[in-house]
Specification:
Helix content: 25-40%
Shape: globular
Number of strands: 14
Structural class: alpha+beta
Order of helices and strands: HEEHEEHEEHEHHHHHHHEEHEHHEEEEH
Distance between the termini: 24 Å
Length: about 425
């Protein structure tokens, strides 16, 4: 057991091990392969929650970006317009090594100025007026077109396996795991979130800035070693500039050496909230893994969600509700821990509570969850891919299997690919 596991063993919280997540289609072989050999292999087109009204002080603009993070694209656009980075609104963040299309917004900027922008790896596709800023979550879903290359089986066999696997997933649903990217490159974001929930701020700072053995990049290893040696100024100089929160914490330690609690509080509130959400995601994934493969069955005591409006209700008669589940009108849910989390009972509760009983939350922990914006709630245990198309092709980079599908907001395409490839896809 590594040092991080030991620090958290009393709460059964360890580094994320994505290989432990059960597959729904475990009886079908995998095709292997790799994705994102080039950005064009991973295309994402955002489906907006609502169309722009055509009137208002805000300008909505749809962009296509290549090989850029959404935040970097927004920063470049803001700099070109002479506005603050925070003035750019977006509904969601899209993959970096990909070609992606999404809507953004800015206030008090004429549409013509946006259409005139010429920025590397960014194209403005269309603009429209609207009466409010585009905010996180204002999207219905995403359309994907993904090419899988370097397959472990011949292309005709890969297509046949894909057809079988996706038929099962479209009927029964894809396990709604939070993807590996939710937990950071070191798979320890949930540990940071747990330290915040329990007010273990010294431990938080040590994980955030130390533990070089978990890193693979030399720059980070060097900076983290300086931190562990107490050479905070050298750690600060070696830490990549774009990691502002880590640099804020290091600057705090330079100003007040040894005060790790103060350093933790120097981290921005949005970043801390993101880490707490990663901890919630980890607990949800554990509940989902314990429930597998019965994600397409409602059990006594379940809180089921209606897919048309997101409302939840208690399942009292599983046999009566099961036909609705089979039609994908409803799905069983798992917990996002917080003040609003309701303990369930019955057969569903036996599975879920066995996991939650390993997480000792006190009243003050729930209060810190609330402050972090983690109010709690429920998330469906499965999602349904739609508009599925499977094709094959070949280009200068070789043969590929091409998958096209639509997913609702909050669902991970990499989790669907994981079922097909039978390997972790970060």
């Amino acid at each position: 057991m590594d040092s991080l596991s030991e620090n958290n063993s009393e709460n059964n919280i360890e580094l994320v091990d994505t290989t432990a997540w059960p597959y729904l289609t475990k009886d079908l072989p995998g095709i292997g392969g790799v994705i994102k050999v080039c950005p064009e292999d991973f295309f994402v087109d955002e489906i907006p929650l609502y169309p722009p009204s055509g009137e208002g002080t805000h300008t909505f603009f749809r962009i296509e970006k290549t090989g850029l993070a959404s935040s970097d694209a927004a920063k470049r656009i803001a700099d070109a317009l002479g506005v603050r980075h925070l003035d750019i609104g977006m509904a969601g963040r899209k993959d970096t090594k990909a070609v992606t299309r999404q809507w953004m917004s800015v206030e008090h900027v004429e549409p013509e100025r946006l259409l005139a922008l010429e920025l590397p790896n960014i194209r403005i596709l269309e603009v429209a007026r609207h009466n409010n800023k585009l905010k996180t979550g204002h999207l219905a879903g995403n359309r994907f077109r993904i090419r899988v290359r370097q397959l472990e089986v011949p292309i005709p066999q890969a297509k046949e396996i894909a057809e079988q696997c996706l038929t099962v997933l479209a009927r029964r649903g894809v396990p709604n795991y939070f993807g590996p990217q939710r937990f950071g490159s070191r798979f320890e974001s949930h540990l940071l979130g747990w330290a915040l929930v329990k007010d273990r701020l010294e431990e938080f700072t040590d994980i955030l800035l130390g533990k070089p053995e978990l890193d693979k990049q030399k720059d980070f290893i060097r900076a983290r070693r300086f931190y562990e040696e107490g050479q905070y100024d050298k750690a600060y100089r070696n830490w990549p500039f774009r990691f502002r929160d880590q640099r804020r914490a290091l600057q705090s330690l330079i100003d007040c050496p040894g005060d790790k609690r103060r350093a933790a509080l120097a981290v921005s509130k949005p970043f801390r909230s993101l880490l707490v959400a990663a901890w919630q995601s980890h607990i949800f994934n554990q509940v989902l893994a314990a429930r597998m493969p019965r994600i397409d069955q409602v059990l006594e005591g379940d809180l089921a969600m209606k897919h048309d409006n997101g409302a939840c209700f208690a399942v009292e008669d599983p046999a009566a509700e099961q036909p609705r589940c089979e039609r994908f009108e409803i799905s069983p849910t798992g917990p996002l821990l917080g003040l609003r989390t309701t303990r369930i009972s019955g057969a569903a509760g036996e599975i879920e509570n066995a996991v939650l009983d390993q997480v000792p939350l006190q009243e003050e922990d729930l209060r810190r969850l609330k402050i972090a914006g983690a109010k709690g709630g429920r998330r469906p245990l499965r999602f349904q891919p739609k508009q599925i198309e499977i094709d094959t092709g070949q280009d200068d980079k070789g043969e590929y299997l091409q998958l096209s599908f639509e997913l609702d907001s909050g669902c991970y395409a990499t989790i669907l690919l994981r079922e097909l490839m039978k390997k972790d896809v970060a």
